[in-house]
Amino acid sequence: MKNRKVCGIALCFFMLAAAGFAQTPKAPDGFSPIFDGKTLRGWHWSLTNHHGSNGLAFVENGVLALRQRPYGQGGLFITDKKYHNFELYLEVKAPFGCNSGIFVRSTEGGSAYQIELLPGSATNASLIGENQRVSQGAQATELSKVWKDDDFNSFRLRMEGDAPHMTLWVNGQQMWDVQEPVNDKVAGETSGHIGLQLHWGVVYQPAAGSSNMNAWKPEAEYQFRNIAVKELP
Fold first, then answer.
1. DSSP state of 19
2. For residues 127 and 221, is the Cβ–Cβ distance under 8 A?
3. How many helices (H) and strands (E) does the chain have?
4. CB 116 within 8 Å of CB 124
5. Model-level pTM?
6. Which domain holds residue 160?
7. In whole angstroms, what separates CA 77 from the centre of its chain?
8. Residues with Cβ < 8 Å from 203, sequence gap 6 or more?
9. pLDDT tens-digit profile of 35-66?
10. 192 within a domain of the structure (yes/no)
């Protein structure tokens, strides 16, 4: 009888573990991973970005982490491949006191359409331009209803057309839908890299003369996982 109880308990633990494994978040069906969860293959640091070029990128437990190196210097971590029409899916954990962004159709130097990544901010998940003008921006006014502090949040962006039609969902809920009247890219570019921004800047230090009070906390890091793309015609 004792052996049966031990076996029963072991079976329960196995079933719970299996259930937890089955519920591990992953990219939706039809998407192809562009981060393998083990290496940095397929990505590189931009060497011409104004945020810096020496950022630290590393993989831990299936998560891509970005950290300033040296403190105060950031960078732009971008795909080797360029994309035109696509859907992008990723999950991001945004720590307090940091600043990041998702760049799409980015140049090597970081001229791009950008989705802001700011924890708990009113401008989080907004559509803006990075080193370029954007004809029509957008704000995620419903974000507070679905946003999870200190946890991973899923972003899904659909982008198609030379003058792009862009739609963003956060945690499965649509945040905005924008049709740009023109292609805002430099020299009429219609494709570009996908990039993850590591913002430069430090916390406020009067002696250093910095005024970016919430730009980046020491040793903080942005975390990304399940980064995948579905290319469209």
1. H
2. no
3. 1, 14
4. yes
5. 0.85
6. 32-231
7. 10
8. 97, 210, 212, 213, 214, 215, 216, 217, 218
9. 999 999 999 999 998 888 989 999 999 999 99
10. yes
